[in-house]
């Protein structure tokens, strides 16, 4: 298998060290040397796109309740940093727009469509198109219907399909879906799987790299990239 670079994708930013999906976590990832940032988007009650992983705000802010029951103004009044450590008090829930503006020209964004809201794929594509740097963004999702909607609405945007399982027809399914990047869960990654997907013309990006052993497994299998909460450790390993 030919050696290809392995992309270090900071998962929700450098989220082992700073509150996930905040400027603090993304800035730290860049400072560590990662040039790819992963983030999650959901829609607010007043139809803005915000960067947050869970359907509820409870775990990662001082608020409570569903993201989509809040307006943008209500979400931006919450503290999104102190839950992680008092030194991060004052971090805010971000809009996708703010993220695109801050990291323009400095990072490739892997935007995961997380929420179930109707129209989320199209709205995400609109914001990315307006920002004017579509080739520096990859849209991902576990949700096949969201990827189908994205393909129909914005075929020019690179897309990745987050997979919980690998079945025999994975290359056929990914081809029919029209995505270039199947994203297997780290524990399913093997050199054989990487070769199979590469030979079918795909780029292979792992997710769910929850510890260093899984990170090494993915590196040794030759993946094209992976999301990690600890980009510094992957950068150190790849530098060896
Ligand atoms: O890299 C994809 C990964 O972010 C998917 O899982 O739950 O962390 O969004 P999750
Ligand atoms: Ca994610």
Overview of the structural elements:
- The chain is an alpha/beta fold and 240 residues long.
- The chain has 9 helices and 10 strands.
- Strands 1, 2, 3, 4, 5, 6, 7, 8, 9 and 10 form a 10-stranded mixed beta sheet that branches.
- β7, α6 and β8 form a beta-alpha-beta unit.
- The site of SN-glycerol-3-phosphate has 8 residues, from β2.
Q: What distinguishing features does this structure have?
A:
binds calcium ion, 240 residues, globular, alpha/beta, TIM Barrel, binds SN-glycerol-3-phosphate
Helix-strand blueprint:
Elements: E1 7-11, H1 23-32, E2 36-43, E3 49-51, H2 72-76, E4 94-95, H3 96-103, E5 108-113, H4 120-131, E6 137-141, H5 144-153, E7 159-163, H6 170-177, E8 181-184, H7 191-199, E9 205-209, H8 212-221, E10 225-228, H9 231-238
Bound molecules: SN-glycerol-3-phosphate and calcium ion.
What is the structure about, briefly put?
The protein has 240 residues and is of the alpha/beta class.
Number of strands: 10
Bound molecules: SN-glycerol-3-phosphate, calcium ion
Largest sheet: 10 strands, mixed
Order of helices and strands: EHEEHEHEHEHEHEHEHEH
CATH 4th-level superfamily: Phosphatidylinositol (PI) phosphodiesterase
- Output the radius of gyration: 17 Å
In the CATH hierarchy, the third-tier topology is known as TIM Barrel
Percent of residues in helical segments? 25-40%
Shape: globular
Report mean pLDDT, rounded to a whole number.
95
> What fraction of residues sit in β-strands?
15-25%
Distance between the termini: 19 Å
**Number of domains in the coordinates?**
1
CATH architecture, by name, is Alpha-Beta Barrel
Query: Would you identify the regions where 5 or more consecutive residues have pLDDT less than 50?
Result: none
Alpha-beta content class: alpha/beta
Q: How many distinct helices?
A: 9
């Amino acid at each position: 298998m030919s050696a290809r670079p392995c992309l270090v994708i900071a998962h929700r930013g450098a989220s082992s060290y700073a509150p996930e999906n905040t400027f603090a976590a993304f800035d730290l990832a860049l400072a560590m040397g990662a040039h790819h940032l992963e983030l999650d988007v959901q829609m607010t009650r007043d139809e803005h796109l915000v960067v947050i992983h869970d359907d509820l705000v409870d775990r990662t802010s001082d608020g409570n309740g569903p993201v989509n029951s809040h307006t943008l103004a209500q979400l931006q009044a919450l503290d999104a940093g102190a839950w992680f450590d008092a030194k991060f008090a004052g971090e805010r829930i971000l809009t996708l727009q703010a993220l695109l503006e801050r990291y323009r020209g400095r990072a490739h964004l892997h935007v995961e469509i997380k929420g179930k809201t109707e129209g989320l794929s199209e709205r995400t594509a609109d914001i990315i198109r307006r920002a004017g740097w579509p080739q520096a963004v990859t849209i991902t999702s576990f949700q096949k219907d969201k990827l189908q909607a994205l393909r129909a609405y914005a075929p020019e945007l690179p897309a990745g399909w987050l997979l919980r399982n690998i079945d025999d027809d994975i290359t056929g399914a990914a081809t029919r879906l029209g995505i270039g990047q199947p994203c297997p869960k780290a524990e399913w990654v093997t050199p054989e799987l990487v070769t199979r997907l590469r030979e079918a013309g795909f780029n292979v990006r792992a997710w769910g790299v929850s510890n260093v052993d899984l990170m090494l497994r993915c590196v040794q299998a030759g993946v094209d990239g992976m999301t990690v909460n600890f980009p510094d450790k992957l950068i150190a390993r790849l530098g060896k």
